[in-house]
Amino acid sequence: MKTNMKIRNRIAGACLLLGGLVGCSEEFLDRPPLDAIVDANFYKTDDQILAASAPLYNIVWFAYNDKASHGIGDARGGILTSGSYQLENVRFNTTGETPENGAAWRAFYNVVAQSNSLINNINQFVGEDVTERIKNHGLAEGRFMRGLAYSYLVQNWGPVPIITNNTALLQDTTIARNTEESVWQFIIKDFRYAAENLPESAVMPGRLTKWSAEGMLAKMYVTKAGVSGTRNQSDLDSAAYFAKSVIDNSGAELVAEYEDLFKTQNNGNEETLAALQWVYNAGQAGQWGAQNSVQAFLAFGSEITGFGDGWGGDIGASKWMLDMYDDLVFDKRRKATFMFPGDHYPYITQVPPGGSAQQLRVPARSLDGARPYNSRAWVKKYVVGRPEDNDGKVVQQGTEINTYILRLADVYLTYAEAVLDKNPAEALKYVNLVRARAGVNELTAVTWEDIFEERIKEFAMEGQAWYEFTKLEYYDPAKAYSMLEEQDRGTFRIYADQIPDPTIWEIEIPADDTSPRFFPVSEANFKIPIPSSELARAPNLRKPAVPYDFTAGN
After folding, report:
1. Distance between CA 181 and CA 24 in Å, rounded?
2. How far apart (Å, rounded) are the C-alpha atoms in residues 400 and 291?
3. Tens digits of per-residue pLDDT, 177-230?
4. Is the Cβ–Cβ distance between 532 and 96 less than 8 Å?
5. Partners of 366 in the beta sheet?
6. Where is it located (predicted)?
7. How far apart are CA 451 and CA 440, in angstroms?
8. Which of 18, 480, 483, 491 has its CA 20 to 30 A from that of 43?
9. Are the CB atoms for 459 and 403 separated by under 8 Å?
């Protein structure tokens, strides 16, 4: 354990240094500082292999998880709205200078760089005492995370460079973007390798398994199915095969209560198939980036974080999002995802200004005559509360709540989408399993729209909504653009019938509300532009994309 912590800390420093280099170098992606993790004396034991892959579960993803995940995944996807924060993403005006754009690009290529270093260094330096099982495990972890990073890259920016050797990149001035078809082929190859080489049971708590990779393969195949412009049935069949394998063989189960998924004490629950593992460190000394920072930006105020953060008072659910719920009271996902005035969360402590500690009862900040209301449905998901609510393990801008990469409900809905045309009864079965957990009535028949809406409700504020639209845009761009243009992203009021203990809420748009509500979407602003700073450093990114040479290596 001492060795693992030492190596983890040194890798953290290397990754933080990489972030600085990417911001000031002449190339858009540099070789990461290799430090001890590429020392020829390292990679000599199973423990060292596992220590070397540990950063792939947290710090290299930090810049995306921090703000870009909800800025791109939820704000662009129509889940999140705001009067100021993330406004370029909310209004579909993401530019080359939008902060979340650059942060996401750099984070994904940091993941690629760290994954490549792990893969290449294991192949080069692995010692004879390393078991074949752990060697392949380390390689598979690298390829899983690299494939995941590329799935985000291609869906956000289209053709992007495929890089497998960061050292060679330093001498290569001809690096170019690769076609979307090439990138998707590369992604599938990485996840297939991971599925073939990861174990059925995790080697350590929180580590990837065969089921993590097969579940992601199912998701990747469902998206790849539309890349050619029409949905490829063979890809859908592959998605169904891998999803059903996970359902039947992984042993994963839905957590009984949806709200429990987002409590720190339930990290690593029975529904989790893959997650980023954030690690508590008191004071964050030397560990910035190793903890989950999202509560700082999503919580409505410092009274529920215990520190000077909690800057989310001006953000919340869009009206389009709230209109998705079958029922604002009985759909358990609403309260677990968004706070309404008067909502009661007994497991979060609230210390109002000048007041004493109490269980959180969401305040109504305004009155319309005798009617209490809020102008935001504040974010609840990934807001876990103060230190006293989490065994002391909360610091300013840092919690240790896991970030889901994949959970079983996702596999259920992926399977339903994959089999919908061939076996609608089977699709209906798995959609209804998700709905039953949410506390809403079963459907008697299921359509693509039903599955789409179920995914929006189930994964709101998990950074997924935008990727539902990128998936659709591949094979039906007109529908994707139309759906996005019809989303009501404007302001509104949420009225509670009484405070405390409301029993019903009403959502109304004031007669004098002139805020913009709908925004144009087309091919011109659907994909995110490559960050301007990267285009300036790497002019080849402006050139037409070329197919990737799959004979070149990993």
Report:
1. 31
2. 6
3. 999 999 999 999 999 999 999 999 999 999 999 999 999 999 999 999 999 999
4. yes
5. 373
6. Cell outer membrane
7. 14
8. 18
9. no
